[in-house]
């Protein structure tokens, strides 16, 4: 006979665990994947505007060059940088290394730093 629903123990979840770097990095990697999907849709919109003609492409270019457009581009490139760094981190883990708490925290922070530096470096190179 099954126990009534209110007496069964609950599995630990976010309200039970204190956030730690590995948890935050894992969740952030999923958000970065969603950001990359937004980037894929933006790429399709850019190609669509390019194929639609000069007027549509000029309108799309104006949108991308606006401050909100630049913010979205920054976030898309940051998501790509983070997802790349997190992928390298997981490759190292697949090799059986980097599991100590200090190294896992350090590589998690490194992925966030890489995510911020990636668009900054690309913007600096594009402006040069």
Helical fraction: over 70%
Low-confidence stretches: none
Helix/sheet category:
mainly alpha
Question: What's the total helix number?
Answer: 4
On the 0-100 scale, what is the average pLDDT?
Answer: 92
Strand percent estimate: under 5%
Radius of gyration equals: 21 Å
Shape: extended
Distance between the termini: 72 Å
**N-to-C SSE string, H for helix and E for strand:** HHHH
Topology:
Layout: H1 21-52, H2 54-65, H3 67-94, H4 101-127
Helix pairs in contact: 1-2, 1-3, 1-4, 3-4
Task: Describe this entry's structure for a reader.
By secondary structure, the chain is mainly alpha-helical. It contains four helices and no strands. The longest helix has 32 residues, at 21-52. The mean pLDDT is 92.
Task: Please provide a brief summary of the model.
With 128 residues, the chain is an all-alpha fold.
Keywords:
0% strand, 128 residues, single chain, extended, mainly alpha
